[in-house]
Structures are given as structure tokens and as C-alpha cells.
Amino acid sequence: MTTFLKKSHIRSVSVWIFTIILMCISTGIAYAETPLQTDIPQENKNQQGMTIAASIQAESMTIKDIKRYLSGQNPSWPNDVPVTIVLYPRLSFELRWLCRNIIKIPPGTYRRFLMQKAFRSGINIIEVKNQEEAAKVLQETPGAIAPIGINLLSETIQEVKQK
Q1: Mean pLDDT, to the nearest integer, of 7-19?
Q2: DSSP strand E in the chain: where?
Q3: Is beta strand 144-149 parallel, antiparallel or unpaired with respect to 50-54?
Q4: What letter does residue 76 receive in the DSSP assignment?
Q5: Domain 49-159 adopts which CATH fold?
Q6: Which tens digits make up the pLDDT trace of 149-159?
């Protein structure tokens, strides 16, 4: 009888080991399918000259002040114009640039935070697909703020100068 128990224990342990190996492999495959920082398309790697732009004349601000506007902590500009945050897709180059260089949190976390903030406190968010749509929103919406390429700056889209 002890031989039978040992064999059953060996079988159950081998089933558990097989299950754990299978889970590790499937988790590794799922993780490998998510885009990594090194998987940025080549045309986006070469894209230089990103900046934070606003549709109003903003005085120079510190990174901390810019974060407050982009996180909805400051709901209006100093001239009482409400802030409208222009939000890019989760895996876009622009959102990753913003989160890596200014906000310092992962893009998914930033998007979830903004959506919760919009539902709770009513901050203004406009979702766009690309920089051209963002430039259009910046031109048409007073108080809008977004990361954008320097080549899209104009008289109506002003760069937010950093101190």
C-alpha cells in the first residue's frame, strides 16, 4: 500500500509540475505579445521634437505645474479658462513620450487615472487618434493642452515653456 501512495504522490506532483510549466509558458507568451518600449515602430523612434502645447498663451511653468494641468489637479488656467486634456491612445508614441518624460507613470495607469478623474470631478478630456487631430483640437478648443510635435506649433497652438 505504501508503494501505491508513493506512486500517486509522484503522479500528483508531476501533474502539478506540468501545470506550473504550462502556466509559465503561457504567461511568457502573453507577456511577449504586449508591446515593449523597444518595439516602437522605426518611424516613431526617429520622431524628434515633442513638446507640451496649449491653445492659450501660457507663461513658463515648471514640470510640476505642467503635471498639475495634465492630471486635472488644476481644473482651470490662471485666466479662468477650463483646462481640456487631449488624450492619445494607450500605446501611442505621444502618450508614452508624455508619461515617460513629464508624468512619470505608465500610460495605462495615466489613462485610467484621467478617466476616473473625469467621472468623479468632471475634468474635460478629448480623445484623439493622432497629432493632426490633437492640433485641430488645440486650435478649436480654448484651454486645451497636449503633447505635440514642434512642427505642428502655430500662432494658435503655443508651446508651454518650461522653467
Answers
A1: 62
A2: 50-54, 84-87, 124-127, 144-149, 158-159
A3: antiparallel
A4: B
A5: D-Maltodextrin-Binding Protein; domain 2 (3.40.190)
A6: 999 998 888 89
The Cα–Cα gap between 88 and 71 comes to: 14
CB atoms within 10 A of CB 83: 22
Contacts 24+ apart (CB under 8 A), 17-22: none
Residues 6+ apart with CB under 8 A from 162: 52, 60, 61, 62, 63, 66
CB 78 within 8 A of CB 86: no
Q: How far is CA 120 from the centre of its chain?
A: 20
pTM, to two decimals: 0.69
The strand order across the sheet containing 144-149 reads 124-127, 84-87, 144-149, 50-54, 158-159
% of the chain at pLDDT higher than 70: 71
Answer yes or no: are the C-beta atoms of 89 and 141 closer than 8 Å.
Answer: no
Please give the mean pLDDT across all residues of the chain: 80
Beta-carbon contacts of residue 8 (< 8 Å; ≥ 6 apart): none
| Confidence at 163, pLDDT banded by 50, 70, 90 | confident
